[in-house]
Structure formats: structure tokens, C-alpha cells
């Protein structure tokens, strides 16, 4: 396994990708976000432009606000096209995993990734990669996988193959993973990459509006309901929680992506450093956690909700009922009272 030490990995990757006309399959994590889709389209456009055949596969459906890209690269949804993806995998020369650190994050595709016997490449910015790929580029200081893709592409000599579509997609990844340049931006890196991407003439106003001004009326009303009726704030623990049942989702005609961003709202309350969102799914409860400062939600999620992620943005799940999950969270707050009080923002 080659890891990102020195230039060795970039030289090997250059060799691996340098022979044209290979079949590349790019995969993202489950419930792909702007960074996952942006990285995949960005890298996919560059590799196709260079001369490879590229297919993107995402484990499950993704929201409408990520379906406006100029790129015409095919994005297959594994859940819907299992057989097609299975036969594509047989012909694939290189598998590239983007924006996730362990095969489990690819959900129903996990086994397919592990079984794949030809070269596997990882490009990701989450901590503690499990090492399931032969070439592993994992850089936690990067704001986004998209920013990292740009650097990798430069290092392996493919910068000249960046085009408008790639620049648009990579910008989207950086913009979404930094919450529109509000966090993970303490290094010059993201701005410097964005500045380069602007040279392809991308329309950043248009991209911003396509992501953030593209909601349905129902989604806005669901948000209103959550903030107005469902948010519970615990000032003594500097924490807040929102939870949503299947019934509520149905009432507001839930579409994939509609609850994206909800978990961030409580953090704009003065002195709140920890926010949780629990959403009732068919057979589990999906948990999202966000924090400010040095309160590590990835560790919290790993220890109590079989999850992980970044220090300030993590996810997980619970097999308890929605009510029990919420109760478990509230009980846990007591355990973390000291740490929450001491959190430096
Ligand atoms: P979100 O709350 O938006 O689903 O996820 C926030 C962050 O946590 C993302 O970086 C995502 O990749 C990561 N994440 C979400 N769910 C899980 C999970 O179940 N396990 C792990 N390890 N990471 C997760
Ligand atoms: Mn990311």
C-alpha cells in the first residue's frame, strides 16, 4: 500500500493513470454531498479529457440541488443499477474512491469495493483512513476532497486537462464543504485553488445559487417547522437537538437532500457549540453532529452512534427508536457537561 509520503505516491499514480484509454470507475460515499459529487465530476472530467473512459457511481440517490452540473459524465446510482455496475466493475481497470475513508461508507457497495482486485486509489480528507486502497492519498488539512483533487491533478501532471466543467465541479466541492467559505478555511489552500479555478471562467454566482437557492417550498416549511417546533436548546450544555420523524417527513413531502444543512442552524445561537439532528429512517435513525471549536463530534459519534467524520462535522446512526435515540443523546450530554463547558471556540 502506497501512502502519501513524499513524491513516491504521485510518481506511481502518474504511472498508473498515465497510460491512456483505461476504464476508470469513480465512487463516492453514501448520501453523496457537494464535495463527493464535485470531486467525482471534477476528477472524472479531467481523466476523460486526458483520454480515459470514466463512469461515476454513487451508492444511492442524491439531491436535486446536485444535479445541475454542466458536465455530461454519466453518474450511476448503484441501488438502482446494481447489475450494470457489477458488470462495469468487471471491466474496470482502476477504481477511484473519493471523499470517504473506509469501505463501510460506501454502504451497499462496500463488498464490491473490497472484492475489486485491480488497482484502487483513495483521495480523501477524512481522518483515519482504513487503508483499503492500494494508493492512498489522505490529507486531513484539506478543506475538501475537491481541493485535494486539484493538488493531486497538478502533482501528477494533468493540470492541462482541467476544463470548464471540472473547474465548476471542483469549485462546488470546495464551496459546499467549507459552508460557503465559512469553515475549514484557515489555510490559504482553498482560496488559492479557487483563484486558479476562476481562470476557467466559471460563474460562481450561478453555482452558489444552484446549490443554496434551489429549495422547494416544502423544504423551507419543514425547516421552519424544525426550528419553530422541534428544536430543543440546552444552554447549560451549550447544545441543541432537532429530531424529525418519518411522519413529519411525509407531511412535508420529503425529497432527498431536504434536511441538508438543518443541523447547522442551532450553531448560530449565541454560545451553542454542539448541535445534533436525528432523522427517523426506515430501519434506523440517521444522526448528524456539528460543533464549534475543539469539541470533537467525530469521536462523540464514533463512541456512541457507530459513526465518524471530521472534528466539527460528523454523522452516525442508531438502531434505537427515534424517541430512545433522542433520550440517549440527552443523557449523554450530562456526561459531556464539563467538556462542553470548557469548549474553546
Ligand atoms: P452528515 O452529517 O452531513 O451526514 O455528515 C457529516 C460528516 O460526517 C461527513 O464528512 C461525512 O462523511 C461523515 N459521516 C456521516 N455519516 C457517517 C457515518 O455513518 N460514519 C462515518 N465514519 N462518517 C460519517
Ligand atoms: Mn468532503
TrEMBL record:
InterPro entries: DDH_dom (IPR001667), DHH_sf (IPR038763), DHHA1_dom (IPR003156), Oligoribo/pAp-PDE_c-di-AMP_PDE (IPR051319). Residues 24-174 form the DDH domain. One of its GO terms (molecular function) is nucleic acid binding. Residues 251-336 form the DHHA1 domain. This is Bifunctional oligoribonuclease/PAP phosphatase NrnA. It comes from Mariniphaga sediminis. The lineage of its organism: Bacteria, Pseudomonadati, Bacteroidota, Bacteroidia, Marinilabiliales.
Amino acid at each position: 500500500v502506497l501512502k502519501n509520503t513524499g513524491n513516491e505516491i504521485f510518481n506511481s499514480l502518474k504511472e498508473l493513470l498515465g497510460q491512456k484509454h483505461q476504464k476508470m470507475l469513480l465512487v463516492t460515499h453514501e448520501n453523496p454531498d457537494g464535495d463527493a459529487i464535485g470531486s467525482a465530476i471534477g476528477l472524472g472530467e479531467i481523466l476523460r479529457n486526458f483520454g480515459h473512459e470514466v463512469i461515476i457511481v454513487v451508492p444511492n440517490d442524491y439531491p436535486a440541488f446536485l444535479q445541475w452540473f454542466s458536465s455530461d459524465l454519466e453518474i450511476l446510482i448503484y441501488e438502482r443499477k446494481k447489475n450494470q455496475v457489477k458488470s462495469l466493475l468487471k471491466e474496470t481497470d482502476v477504481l477511484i474512491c473519493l471523499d470517504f475513508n473506509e469501505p463501510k461508507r460506501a454502504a451497499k457497495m462496500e463488498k464490491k469495493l473490497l472484492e475489486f482486485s485491480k488497482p484502487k486509489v483513495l483521495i480523501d480528507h477524512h481522518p483515519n483512513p482504513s487503508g483499503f486502497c492500494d494508493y492512498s492519498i489522505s490529507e486531513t488539512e484539506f478543506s475538501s476532497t475537491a481541493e485535494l483533487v486539484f493538488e493531486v491533478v497538478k502533482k501528477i501532471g494533468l493540470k492541462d486537462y482541467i476544463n470548464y466543467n471540472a473547474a465548476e465541479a471542483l469549485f462546488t466541492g470546495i464551496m459546499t464543504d467549507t459552508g460557503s467559505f465559512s469553515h475549514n478555511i484557515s489555510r490559504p489552500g482553498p482560496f488559492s485553488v479557487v483563484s486558479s479555478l476562476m481562470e476557467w471562467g466559471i460563474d460562481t454566482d450561478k453555482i452558489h445559487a444552484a446549490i443554496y437557492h434551489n429549495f422547494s417550498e416544502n423544504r423551507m416549511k419543514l425547516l421552519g417547522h424544525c426550528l419553530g417546533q422541534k428544536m430543543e436548546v440546552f444552554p447549560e450544555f451549550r447544545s441543541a437537538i432537532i429530531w424529525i420523524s418519518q411522519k413529519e417527513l411525509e407531511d412535508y413531502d420529503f425529497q432527498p437532500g431536504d434536511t441538508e444543512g438543518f443541523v447547522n442552524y442551532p450553531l448560530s445561537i449565541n454560545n451553542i457549540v454542539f448541535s445534533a439532528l436525528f432523522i427517523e429512517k426506515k430501519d434506523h435513525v440517521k444522526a448528524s453532529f456539528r460543533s464549534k471549536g475543539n469539541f470533537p463530534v467525530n469521536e462523540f459519534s464514533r463512541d456512541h452512534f457507530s459513526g465518524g467524520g471530521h472534528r466539527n462535522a460528523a454523522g452516525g446512526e442508531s438502531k434505537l427508536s427515534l424517541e430512545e435515540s433522542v433520550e440517549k443523546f440527552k443523557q449523554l450530554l450530562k456526561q459531556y457537561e464539563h467538556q462542553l463547558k470548557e469548549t474553546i471556540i
